[in-house]
Amino acid sequence: MNQITQPTALITGASKGLGRALAGALVARGWRLAVDARAPGSLAAELPDAAVVTGDVTEPGHRVALAAAVSRLDRLGRLDLLVNNASDLGPSPLPALARYPLEALRRVYETDVVAPLALVQMLAPRLRDAGGIVVNVSSDAAVEPYPGWGGYGSAKAALDQLSAVLAAEEPDLRVYAVDPGDMRTDMHQAAFPGEDITDRPEPATVVPALLRLLDARPPSGRYRAADWAVADAASETSR
Asked: CA separation (Å) from 4 to 28, 76, 194, 214?
């Protein structure tokens, strides 16, 4: 991470789940934050020093507003970290591909693939100036053919490939596609309507692994948060 007094991050989809947990952790570390959410709720109260921008990442005007918020946080417009966390699961219950509504599929791709790339395109100069990091939140559904997950999974697979190509094209950046694993979130509940998902871990339990990844700055690539958590536990045991 570029060593400046207060690094700056932009996190999309920060009203709940992993985005909200990561935002809180970065604020505790002294980061300046711009965050967005379709329905921010109490986000501004919880992150009083953050720039909270209400809107939808699929809207070009909203993305312009996010870039402007970054500029207000840092007079040079630098951006150390972009976290593309906002995602669209698609219809619930999850439909098979043979009957997947195409308009819904377009919406999934607009949110999960097109919007992250659009933000990267808009913010690339600022990320380059900072030698920054792009985190694209992926899923195991990107690599495993789960029935019903064809829309979301294929979109995340596209995001993984987008991340890999971006890394090859932008060697001065770190570009990570990160699979956080199953979490107890509203999205995960929507994927399993009527089922009890309380056995899944809370999003906050994933954040320490993400912070280790950011601190370590490994080569660009696809990473599982679980691997970083396991590695840390092993290192603690060996001491």
From this structure: 16, 12, 47, 15
SS3 151: helix
At 24, which helix (H) or strand (E)? helix 17-28
Q: Which helix (H) or strand (E) holds 164?
A: helix 150-169
Alpha-carbon distance of 132 to 9, in angstroms, equals: 9
194 HSE (CA, 13 A, CB side): 3
Q: What is the pLDDT of residue 111?
A: 98
Provide the whole-model pTM. 0.91
Whether 84 and 12 have beta carbons less than 8 Å apart is answered as yes
CA distance 142 to 155: 7
153-177 pLDDT tens trace? 999 999 999 999 999 999 999 999 9
User: Which residues, other chains included, contact 73 with Cβ-Cβ below 8 Å and sequence gap of 6+?
Assistant: 8, 32, 33, 34, 51
Torsion region of 167: left, alpha or beta (phi above 0 gives left; psi -120 to 50 gives alpha)? alpha
pLDDT tens sequence across 21-37: 999 999 999 999 999 98
132: amino acid identity, one letter:
G
Are residues 63 and 118 in contact, defined by beta-carbon separation less than 8 angstroms?
Answer: yes
8-238 CATH pick, 2.40.30.10, 3.40.50.20, 3.40.50.720, 3.30.559.30: 3.40.50.720
Write the CB contacts of 191 (distance below 8 Å, at least 6 apart in sequence): 89, 92, 94, 149
Tokens of 108: 């999934």
Report d(CA 130, CA 124) in Å as an integer.
Answer: 10
